[in-house]
């Protein structure tokens, strides 16, 4: 997709030269790289959130086991 450029002043027609084309190509490549980097960062953040949920589930599970053992020992200690 090419962007339309505004007409140049003094009646000169706009033309594409090699340095300008290289610059436009570089800008497009840079934009694609930034978008890819942002997508990778988003995916990494999602993975970290999943890992954090798993970690908290593990912590609550261990805490539940400890409390269950403490409650069981209290029930066994009192007749």
Give an overview in words.
There is one protein chain. By secondary structure, the chain is an all-alpha fold. The protein has one helix spanning 18-77. It is rod-shaped and about 105 Å long. The termini are far apart.
Summarize the structure.
76% of the residues lie in helices and 0% in strands. The model has no long low-confidence stretch (mean pLDDT 87).
Could you outline the blueprint of secondary structure elements for this entry?
Elements: H1 18-77
Please give a handful of descriptors for the protein shown.
79 residues; mainly alpha; 1 helix; 76% helix; single chain
Inertia-based shape: rod-shaped
Q: Main sheet, how many strands, which sense, barrel?
A: none
- The arrangement of helices and strands along the chain is H
- Derived from helix and strand composition plus strand pairing, the structural class reads mainly alpha
State the helix count.
1
In angstroms, what is the radius of gyration?
31 Å
Low-confidence segments, given as residue ranges, are none
Multimerization state: single chain
Content of β-strand: under 5%
Terminus-to-terminus distance: 83 Å
Task: Say how many strands there are.
Answer: 0
Average residue pLDDT: 87
Helicity range: over 70%
């Amino acid at each position: 997709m090419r962007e339309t450029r505004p007409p140049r002043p003094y009646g000169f027609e706009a033309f594409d030269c090699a340095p300008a084309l290289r610059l436009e190509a570089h800008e497009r490549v840079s934009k694609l790289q930034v978008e890819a980097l942002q997508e990778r960062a988003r995916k990494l953040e999602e993975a970290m959130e999943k890992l954090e949920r798993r970690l908290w589930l593990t912590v609550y599970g261990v805490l539940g086991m400890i409390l269950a053992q403490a409650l069981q020992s209290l029930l066994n200690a009192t007749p």
